[in-house]
Amino acid sequence: MNVVIHPVHFDASSQLMEFINKKLAKLETFFDRIVEAEVFLKLGPSQSIKDKTVEIKVHVPGKTLFVAKTAKSFEESCDLAVRTVAGQLKKQKEKLKSA
């Protein structure tokens, strides 16, 4: 799976990039046909300390799954988003099995 990380209007640390890559690598255990994952890291209005949003687009054959989560840290937002996307991937896999 190809992972592309886009920090919007700031430079993300290499630690954060590694953390996101590790989390997204775990998604392949739920669905092995993931083509690409795009991650957008956004700060809240006026570079707010408490609003950090992670948006994840996961491209699978025939569909694009999307999740956006906001929390106090990028790591927490990423955890929430990955959990949600994992659920979507499980549903997608079930749909393909039943079709």
Provide an overview of this structure.
The protein has 99 residues and is an alpha+beta fold. It has one domain: Ribosome hibernation promotion factor-like (Double Stranded RNA Binding Domain). 37% of the residues lie in helices and 32% in strands. It has helices spanning 14-25, 74-98, and strands at residues 2-7, 36-43, 52-60, 63-71. It has a four-stranded mixed sheet with strand order 1-2-3-4, with helices on one face. The radius of gyration is 14 Å and the shape is elongated. The model has no long low-confidence stretch (mean pLDDT 92).
Structural class: alpha+beta
Supply the number of structural domains. Answer: 1
| CATH topology grouping | Double Stranded RNA Binding Domain
How many individual β-strands? 4
Rg of Cα set: 14 Å
Low-confidence stretches: none
Structure at a glance:
The protein is an alpha+beta fold. It is built from two helices and four strands.
Topology readout:
Blueprint (H helix, E strand, L loop, with lengths): L1 E6 L6 H12 L10 E8 L8 E9 L2 E9 L2 H25 L1
Parallel strand pairs: 1-2
Antiparallel strand pairs: 2-3, 3-4
Helix pairs in contact: 1-2
